[in-house]
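Quick illustration for those who missed Monday's session on complexes.
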Amino acid sequence: MTDTQLQQFELQQSFDATIAAEARIEPRDWMPEGYRKTLIRQIAQHAHSEIIGMQPEGNWLTRAPSLRRKAILMAKVQDEAGHGLYLYSAAETLGADRADLTDKLISGRQKYSSIFNYPTLTYADVGTIGWLVDGAAICNQVPLCRSSFGPYARAMIRVCKEESFHQRQGYELLTTMMGGTDEQRAMVQESVDRFWWPALMMFGPPDDRSPNSEQSMAWGIKRHSNDELRQKFVDMSVPQAEALGVSFPDPDLAWNAERGHYDFGEPDWSEFTEVVKGNGAMNVERIAVRRAAHEDGAWVRDAATAFAAREQENHR
Ligand SMILES: [Fe+2]
Ligand SMILES: [Fe+2]
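Prediction with fe (ii) ion bound:
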């Protein structure tokens, strides 16, 4: 072994020991290139999802039914912007460049969650998104609070606290509507019918079709498989739907006493593939809006850069 090989071997050993001890990898630590790349891709996709996720609900800000609902929705959409910012910062600690990540998003080279390519057609969708979409996000993200990469795990702790408020505001909105008129109840059911399957797809493809999962689990980046998390979400959501008085559009949904879990049908994975490929109802608009916002913000970035340069000059 040459000196460099020996050094490499020791670094890898110390990384493996840190992962095995369930301790945290920090930005200053040596890490395998694959680990760094996987994390940058995952954190960037997550950040993009938070930022793009502002659009479906932002669509209803000017048409909220009351001042109270408007204030709640505005706070929620702002929280999502904050989540995006923490996550871009976490990606930067791995050496990623934020401008480059944004460029990859608006040129379609990096993805965001498929769920945000569905339209929001009624105000009930604000409630359903809070309940089911933020609910699915919580199932996905709570285990990430134990992710092996320190900055990501710490960002997730705050994000999850805020997500649980998002879920509650959604459920509270739906509860209020269910106590209203027949028309409002029908509006809630129609919204749940549209969002149930896309929410299940948020956990990603089935385990046997999720090639990168195994390595991510070994690295402690991911803690549970897609199918485990999906099952957990179904088990959690069914009693909530019963309490609310809505049903899910799945004839196969039934309690299985033997397994101690709900059985449920198979999502339409061909629809998922199409949406991920860019052929969902809203893909083109979501990216166009994000691109326009980025271009409109160019003067702000220029001004901030010029200001920072002058400050540095002044403090020399
Ligand atoms: Fe969020
Ligand atoms: Fe949220």
